[in-house]
């Protein structure tokens, strides 16, 4: 979903489009382990990461900091950029599912825990494996429908 600088206005913050995909891969690993182990606390840690990305900005999450420090310097070629708002919205969607899974885990609602966590994991995997961000696409659809 990379866009060029000419397709956004001057006030739009652009980010390295590869960073959210790295974050999605990291999220996929964390959520898969949480699902296999039924770890409510691991979901809680991921919830914090989503909160940082949704309330702050995706470039401030721990995964983004790891990407910028260790991965990005090793990449070559032109840096694809994208508007920060779709990934930030995707973080908010992930946060909502993580909150549901976390609360379900705390109260012992195992089915709700598994379903919410599985949906969140599926979305993260789609982004990590196929560069298809469901939250980003939902954001773009909402923007189109509200214009």
Write the layout of secondary structure elements.
Elements: E1 14-16, H1 18-37, H2 40-56, H3 62-71, E2 81-83, H4 85-107, H5 110-130, H6 134-145
Antiparallel strand pairs: 1-2
Helix pairs in contact: 1-2, 1-3, 1-5, 2-4, 4-5, 4-6
Features:
mainly alpha; two-stranded antiparallel ribbon; 6 helices
Uncertain runs:
1-7
Overall mean pLDDT score? Answer: 94
How many helical elements? 6
For the record, the count of structural domains works out to: 1
Strand order of the largest sheet: 1-2
Summarize the biggest pleated sheet: 2 strands, antiparallel
Helix percent band: over 70%
Strand content: under 5%
- Overall shape: it is globular
What does this structure look like?
This protein is mainly alpha-helical. Helix 1 crosses helix 3, helix 1 runs antiparallel to helix 5 and helix 4 packs across helix 6. The protein has one domain. The chain contains 6 helices and 2 strands, in the order βαααβααα. A two-stranded antiparallel ribbon has the order 1-2.
């Amino acid at each position: 979903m990379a866009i060029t600088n000419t397709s956004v206005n001057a006030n739009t913050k652009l980010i390295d489009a590869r960073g959210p995909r790295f974050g999605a891969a990291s999220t996929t690993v964390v959520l898969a382990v949480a699902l296999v182990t039924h770890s409510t606390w691991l979901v809680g840690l991921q919830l914090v990461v989503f909160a940082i990305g949704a309330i702050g900005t995706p470039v401030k999450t721990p995964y983004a900091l790891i990407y910028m420090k260790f991965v990005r310097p090793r990449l070559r070629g032109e840096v694809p950029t994208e508007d920060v708002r779709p990934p930030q919205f995707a973080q908010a969607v992930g946060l909502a599912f993580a909150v549901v899974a976390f609360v379900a885990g705390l109260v012992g609602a195992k089915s709700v825990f598994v379903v919410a966590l599985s949906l969140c994991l599926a979305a993260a995997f789609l982004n990590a494996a196929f560069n298809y961000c469901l939250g980003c696409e939902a954001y773009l659809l909402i923007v189109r429908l509200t214009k």
